[in-house]
Amino acid sequence: MTTTKSIVKNLGTFLILLLLATPQIYAQTYNLDNSASKLTVSGTSSLHDWDIDAEQQKGQIVLNSATEMTIEKLTLQVTAESLKSGKSAMDKNTHKALDTKKHKTISFQLTEVKNMKATGADNYKVDVVGNLTIAGVTKKQQISLDMHATAAKVKLKGKKAFNMSDFGIDPPKALLGTITTGDQVTITFQTILNK
Predict the structure, then answer these.
(1) For residues 131 and 140, is the Cβ–Cβ distance under 8 A?
(2) Domain containing 64 — which CATH number?
(3) Whole-model pTM?
(4) Is residue 107 in a domain?
(5) pLDDT band, very low/low/confident/very high, at 175 (cuts 50, 70, 90)
(6) N or C: which end of the chain has fewer CB within 10 A?
(7) Enclosing domain of residue 189
(8) How many independent structural domains does the chain possess?
(9) Is residue 17 part of a domain?
């Protein structure tokens, strides 16, 4: 008799814990894999086009699939001084323009999912709005991206063009101002986040 009571009690406890945990089962958190992710800033200058890669990134996405797939949270952060072109003079000018001594990170924080449409197995077209902060200036930006989401991994791909001057950044110059950088830059990213 005692054994039956014990089993019923344990079963009851298990069911209560299961009911309390159910909302969390659908919300899955994935963290950015820096070694597998790539983010490149591209631009133009009076001499040639240029690219700078981000060597240090972190971020997180929280997906909820309770009824249909939704993004609950999305944050991305780049260490500003990890932007490297392979040319030390260009890197120095870039870091100076971004005032990286004072503003250590470039970040994006999701504020709204405007549209999310399934395009096939585990694939989605997503339009998000969020706060993009560069050199201490925050602007609301809309970004379109492709998302591939499985139980173990999320892959985000997209690009976004904007003007540096919108963020109060003077486009870098070199060789006493004889080489000037175009105001518009494009960020291209392929972000891998693992569970």
Answers:
(1) yes
(2) 2.40.128.110
(3) 0.83
(4) yes
(5) low
(6) N
(7) 26-194
(8) 1
(9) no
